């Protein structure tokens, strides 16, 4: 409702009570009684007054029948008379004039001691409420920050537990691989030792065969058979050594690959932790700035009183949009008031600019203008 009043108070016909009058020459005019003074309008133009008398220039109002007399404060200016349609209208103009004049004077009077004391007390109460609100907001922000940190620490703890479990699993797997590799190495060493022993024994048998070239055929055949069997055994052991050597090499490569992956995972984890820490610090800074701005806005909102002439821009845009839609929806020709309002907008005139222009000059000259209309 307050925003609506802020908008409509700038309209030309807002707060104006119109009355049909005549001047002493009998010219039909309109008298507008407003909170700022008395305005004289032409009959066909209720938006733009031609003459205006602010309440600060008016000393007294009185009437007798249809004759309404306005007495200015300027001693050099004569009273000016308007003719109303009947005595009832004169009484209405007098009552409205007295009420608006009293309000006009009251708004410009200095505050009485009682009112000043009440305002001072109200300011103290408002400041106390502001302090309480700021304290409450600070505590609320601190509590929210503590809850966020608690949630973040819990999440970090869960992540650390998961990472420790993963590392424990990787460590157990690496230990199993290393044990298997050690066993393979031991088997390989035993196989190599056995191969060397078999080769030595084969060489001895070859030497013995060479030394006993003239042994009997049966003995020679038996020795040759043993040599062939030993050759086969040596070949088998050699193949076994090669197979175990290949398996050992593959296990070593697997261990190296696992170690490399573990190092890469460690680097990624450290990078992720640094990134999270940076994001956390950035969020804390942004949250602190946002909280500070909120507290400042709350403080400014409590310390500043609303300006009567301040108009909500969003509502003005909505009003303009509605006006455009209304203009598009119109199918008949515009009225005289709409035409005058459109001309005022095109020429950049408004209510306050018009009043400033027509109040220029002294009161006597404006009274003469009214009588000569």
From TrEMBL:
InterPro entries noted in UniProt: ERM, ERM_C_dom, ERM_FERM_C, ERM_helical, Ez/rad/moesin-like, FERM_domain, FERM_PH-like_C, Moesin_tail_sf
Bilayer topology term: Peripheral membrane protein
Pfam families: ERM_C, ERM_helical, FERM_C
GO cellular component assignments: adherens junction; cytoskeleton; plasma membrane; rhabdomere
Subcellular location: Cell junction, Adherens junction; Cell membrane; Cell projection, Rhabdomere; Cytoplasm, Cytoskeleton
The keyword Cell membrane belongs to this UniProt entry's keyword annotation: yes
Basic and acidic residues: compositionally biased ranges: 254-296
Annotated FERM domain residues: 1-108
PROSITE patterns: FERM_3
Gene Ontology molecular function terms on file: actin binding
Keyword Lipid metabolism: no
Annotated region described as Disordered, given as residue ranges: 254-312
PANTHER family recorded: MERLIN/MOESIN/EZRIN/RADIXIN
Protein name: FERM domain-containing protein
């Amino acid at each position: 409702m307050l925003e609506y009043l802020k908008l409509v108070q700038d309209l030309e016909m807002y707060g104006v009570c119109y009355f049909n009058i005549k001047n002493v020459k009998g010219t039909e005019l309109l008298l507008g009684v407003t909170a700022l003074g008395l305005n004289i309008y032409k009959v066909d133009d209720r938006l733009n007054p031609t003459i205006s008398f602010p309440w600060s220039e008016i000393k007294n109002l009185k009437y007798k029948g249809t004759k309404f007399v306005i007495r200015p404060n300027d001693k050099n200016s004569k009273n000016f008379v308007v003719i109303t349609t009947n005595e009832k209208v004169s009484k209405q103009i007098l009552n409205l004039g007295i009420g608006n004049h009293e309000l006009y004077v009251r708004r410009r009077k200095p505050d009485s001691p009682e009112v000043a004391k009440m305002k001072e007390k109200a300011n103290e109460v408002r400041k106390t409420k502001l302090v309480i609100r700021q304290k409450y907001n600070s505590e609320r922000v601190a509590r929210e920050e503590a809850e966020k940190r608690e949630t973040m620490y819990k999440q970090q703890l869960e992540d650390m537990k998961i990472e420790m479990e993963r590392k424990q699993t990787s460590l157990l797997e690496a230990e199993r691989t290393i044990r298997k590799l050690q066993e393979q190495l031991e088997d390989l060493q035993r196989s190599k030792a056995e191969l060397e022993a078999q080769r030595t024994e084969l060489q001895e048998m070859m030497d013995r065969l060479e030394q006993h070239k003239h042994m009997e055929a049966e003995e020679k055949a038996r020795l040759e058979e043993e040599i062939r069997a030993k050759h086969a055994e040596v070949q088998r052991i050699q193949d076994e050594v090669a197979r175990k050597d290949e398996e050992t090499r593959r296990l070593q490569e697997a261990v190296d690959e696992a170690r490399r992956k573990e190092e890469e995972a460690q680097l990624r984890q450290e990078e992720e932790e640094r990134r999270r820490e940076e994001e956390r610090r950035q969020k804390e800074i942004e949250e602190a700035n946002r909280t500070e701005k909120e507290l400042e806005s709350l403080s400014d909102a409590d310390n500043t009183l609303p300006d009567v002439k301040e108009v909500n821009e969003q509502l003005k845009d909505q009003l303009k949009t509605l006006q455009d839609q209304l203009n598009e929806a119109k199918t008949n020709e515009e009225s005289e008031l709409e035409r005058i309002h459109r001309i005022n907008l095109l020429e950049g005139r408004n209510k306050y600019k018009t009043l400033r222009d027509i109040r220029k000059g002294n009161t006597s000259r404006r009274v003469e203008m009214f009588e000569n209309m």
